[in-house]
Design goal:
This protein has one domain. It contains seven helices and no strands. Helices cover about 55% and strands about 0% of the residues. Helix 3 runs antiparallel to helix 4 and helix 4 packs across helix 5. By secondary structure, it is mainly α.
């Protein structure tokens, strides 16, 4: 039996969905905030003592799985903000994005704004002054 060709365009969306369900199942059972948990710590933070753009992502996703949005925002606000653009790009890759909303795909598909946002976030969350210290996990 051969896999239908017209369903291949849904494979990226199905893969993202499957990974998301698996991660949600793990994060519903394991609390990354407890010492000695089996989830890995950030190697960049362990080596340098600085927060990378991804630091706090596991704790952020754990809070989201438990519907605790304020805690999730405290752990990694960039991750929360980037969920919508990632979802838009995933739906577009599956061909499920309306034509009249193509402006959103064009906006989110540009790499330079993403690079500027991520590098700026990386630098600002390591500044020790208010309000920048609010960007650090915790």
């Amino acid at each position: 039996m051969q896999f239908p060709q017209h369903l291949l365009r849904y494979m990226p969306l199905a893969a993202i969905g499957g990974i998301g369900v698996g991660a949600a199942a793990v994060l519903s059972r394991i609390d990354p905030n407890t010492p000695g948990n089996p989830l890995p710590a950030c190697p960049f933070h362990a080596l340098t003592g600085l927060w990378c753009p991804g630091c706090g992502s596991t704790r952020c996703l754990h809070a989201l799985v438990h519907l605790d949005l304020p805690q999730a925002m405290a752990m990694n606000p960039l991750l929360i903000v980037s969920i919508v653009p990632v979802l838009v790009m995933a739906l577009h890759s599956a061909g499920l994005w309306p034509v009249r909303l193509q402006w959103a795909v064009r906006l989110f598909a540009r790499p330079i704004p993403w690079l500027v946002v991520i590098v700026s976030y990386w630098l600002l969350r390591n500044l020790p002054w208010y309000p920048f210290n609010l960007l650090a996990p915790g």
